[in-house]
Amino acid sequence: MKQVEIYTDGACSGNPGPGGWGAVLRYNGVEKEISGGAADTTNNRMELTGVIEALRLLKEPCEVILCSDSKYVCDAISKGWAKSWRKNGWRKGDKKPALNPDLWETLLALLEKHRVTVQWIKGHAGHPENERCDRLAVAGAEKFK
After folding, report:
1. Is 69 a catalytic residue?
2. The predicted structure's pLDDT at residue 3
3. From the centroid of its chain, how far is CA 78?
4. Of 7, 58, 68, 101, which is most buried, counting CB atoms within 10 Å of its CB?
5. Are 141 and 20 within 8 A, CB to CB?
């Protein structure tokens, strides 16, 4: 299996408001940057979209190290929350509706194609790839202001 590193971030100006996402993919010493945004969204939707769009670029099953500063994304994947939400009809343990089920449905399907290891990284702490993704995400949001 090919080994790919993916770094992602999301940003929102207001929550909800104009938002953006960014991702850096690294395979065999080659890097690719991607980004985008939406006019009316939330920070968590942008965090999820960055991961989804990065995984969509992979043309075959890969071993992926996914790095994000989003506890929401990292914990929901690594602690199995998102799978539980899906199993329970998109309801959380407290019976309240899980947020962003449309994006989680897409992301869970993509995660099933790959072997993904999730690594949470502290945001805005000088991590070079996270800072790059943040710049991409903020630029993506700027296009919708």
Report:
1. yes
2. 98
3. 13
4. 7
5. yes
